[in-house]
User: Fold these one by one.
Assistant:
Number 1:
Amino acid sequence: MPNARRPVALRLIVALAVAAIVGAALGARIEADPGPVRGASTRDVPTHATGRTALSPAAVLASLERPSSPAPACGAATATTIAAIDTAVAQGIYAQELHSREVSRDLAHVTGSQALLSALAGDDEAAVQAAVHTIVYTPHWHIVRLRIVKAGRVIADVGGPDVIAPVSGTLRENRRTLATYVMSVQDDLGYVKLISRFIGIPVDLYRKGAFLMGTLQPAPRVSGTATAVRVHGSPYLLEPLTARAFPSGQLGIALLIPTPSAAVSAASCASVALATWGSIAVHVAARLEPLQAHYQALVDVLHGTTGGPAYVRAGAKPIAGGTLPAHLPTSGLISYGGRSWSVFSWEPVPPARVYFLTPAY
């Protein structure tokens, strides 16, 4: 059975009703289905799981415009503007499953297991199996699958069947090579849930071109480039990505970005981009309960998956996020760390305000 544990920043995510700020501040995104189901069709999934709602995105985006500096409408570039941000975050989520500090800690559990190393040195396959089982199912560790290969032969393979983002390496004792390993901290379903919960869009996974699991079914065909598709009559822009399968090979990922409305397309591309980044920030915040106890986790997840700095403070009092920029407005452009940022902020639990620095468009 797949192990449901996750890297520390991500495992704090829990099911939570979206706060009122989602509708008030963003409008263009909605709560994602908490559990995409293998083979589910859109008729099996709540309507809100299949795209953005009509919660006045035009009014929200208009509030982000600067009346004194009118900008041209984003128009035909709206979908690609949104898709570029969604893709960047999906890639950031995937990268965390390969390179985060939590992954490094889990690798240390594998490479430093004296029980495993001793069993390998003694050619005791039963002891190897027992050591691997212990590593995978030890509470508070986050490994979903671990495979050990010695002399070209798999001698232990414990964990779930559908696993993504494998990390491999060598097991050594006293500079002697004993075996190699393949480890993962995330399964396919977990990745689908993170995409749908963080970004708020449908996502499907494919293996060798065949639908594996995800949000929408019948799953659209995937090509190597972005494609306009329709699922049950609803239009989407399909953005294809790839990921490593376990223990080798590739998985196809289809991000399905709902076609923006004419009202949204009438906003500037800068406003569309800021609202899209902000939507993701609020989606993440809605997964941390109670948010007051997890402000640093929010900051860490946002920075880890988007690359953008985030801060929480109540008035002049810093709460999370480390050193603040010298001047941090509630909105607008700032220069910090040698680059320009657009500020998105909101008050999920007043008086605390979250400031999220997004790449300036």
Number 2:
Amino acid sequence: MMTRLLTQLGRVTYARYIVASVGALAVDMGVFMALLHVGVAAMAASATGYMIGIAAHWLLSSRTVFTDRLERNRNRQKLMFVASAIVGLAITAGVVGAGAALGVDPRIAKLCAIAISFNTTYLLRKRIVFS
């Protein structure tokens, strides 16, 4: 029963995207927290973590999530993926920057940014990048 459920979940694009995002988020948050620890400003730490996490996300998304939608020449998809990442980066930096300006704990602001950025980039990637 459990094996069957896992197999069905593996076929669901959104579920695979969540798993890939958790991996990329681990990279992002690790870098973010490390940079905060050494005194880097919250907005810069957030943006840096996001950029490094996005490289991990491309690798995971293109190899485990949207495998049936890859183009032979992936340059267009890579460019569109980077464009969607820039949208996510702007959301992340904006939310964390606004949170910091309002005195919100940067970790809380980052969590809010993650929720907004995650759904925005998923929709962009599903409907445009890997369409």
